[in-house]
Amino acid sequence: MKLLERELDAKVKALCDRFGWIRYHVVKPKYGPAGFPDLTLARGDHFAVIELKKDLGARGGMEDEHVGPSPAQKKWLDAAAIATHVDVALWRPVDLEAIEAFLADPDSVPTPGIWRA
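Below the sequence we write its predicted structure tokens.
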């Protein structure tokens, strides 16, 4: 069975629902940063960054057009793959000075507005 990307996405969505993952799918990638992955998923202590591609030979275009990720997609996937931890925070304007310090050198200062579950 050859699947288009949207068909694969529908199946992944059903699996996420079935197994209790929360999911965000980039609906209109033209409004976001170039190459941002299609899905971000979370469940328990897992956070996943996922790019979807159609099966090779699936209907809907040239078979070799998008064999792998684009250079912009590869940049995002590589960055996510080498990350050793995820910082989660709620930032407000009052945090701007701490935000600047964190973004300049995240290893030297605590994450401002760190979110604790």
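The helical segments are 5-19, 71-82, 96-104.
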